[in-house]
Hints:
Blueprint: H1 2-7, H2 12-17, H3 19-27, H4 34-54, E1 58-62, H5 66-88, H6 97-107, E2 115-119, H7 147-155, H8 159-169, H9 174-186, H10 192-206, H11 208-223, H12 231-237, E3 243-246, E4 255-256, H13 257-263, H14 270-278, E5 282-284, E6 287-288, E7 294-295, E8 305-310, E9 314-320
Parallel strand pairs: 1-2, 3-9
Antiparallel strand pairs: 4-7, 5-6, 5-8, 8-9
Helix pairs in contact: 4-5, 5-6, 7-10, 7-11, 8-9, 8-10, 10-11, 13-14
Amino acid sequence: EALRxxxxxxxxxxxxxKESVRSRLESREQGITYTEFSYxxxxxxxxxxxxxxxxxxxxxxxxxxYGNIVAGIDLIRRKLAVAFGLSALQDRENPDLxxxxxxxxIGRSNVVPAFGLTAPLVTKSDGGKFGKxxxxxxxxxxxxxxxxxxxxxxxNTSDADVGGYLRTFTxxxxxxxxxxEAEVLTNPGRREAQRTLARxxxxxxxxxxxxxxxxxxxxxLFSGQIRDLPDxxxxxVFADVPSSEHPRSQxxxxxxxxxxxxxxxxAKSKREAKEFLGNGSVRVNGDVVGLEARITRSDLLxxxxxxxxxxxxxxxxxxxx
Length: 321
């Protein structure tokens, strides 16, 4: 229905000239699907519907949406001109000349009823853009991306990208950003620029308290001392860590860490597990454990989990159900 009523306002030649269509035709071996081709019409229809029913007069978007936004403005102009024209000619013997003039002005673009605002796309160093369809996308609502996950996203920014992101996503002054960029070149291992970006961006969105909590959680995870984390933050920190479920009843007599390391894949064999334990590279809930260590109910965090780390970065979360 929408394509029937709205499609008559669009010519294929005009649509082929738009960057959003032309770029897909030129940069893909498989061309463009009908769904993608008709997307411009549907987006224009959305704008026209919001204009008519909600009084929306401005559409904002990335620079790649320029053609679609302009198409929406043009659709609004055409439909509005028709509406004024029909209204003016309700009484054909005595047409409303004022409305007829308005219809003509709108049709000739002398009167612009709606507007568009675009901004340059924020891209990564590899040329990829941010967006809900891109891998690793983040959300502004804490229900979709927690403050901790949001903080970690910025903390993992590459050296090549961090300068541009500091300019885009923080309110730091130019001198401070240039100082941080210089620090990236002279001492990249400190990652001061990334930590500053993560803290500033998280503070702007979620507030200072949440930013501080996320920063503290990040430090705790790095150090391995996780016992003091609040239960909710603990689960957020380990949300993406490999995990496994185990019967809680096994904790009555305790489970040997040697067996656990093999069961959860942190060691290939009991011999290798004993080597890891012997050289002090295994931690349970942040504490170094030895060959005779056993996991019991007293080790449970948040009354249900135990976190095991082998080496500096290999974590596994055991869920006891």
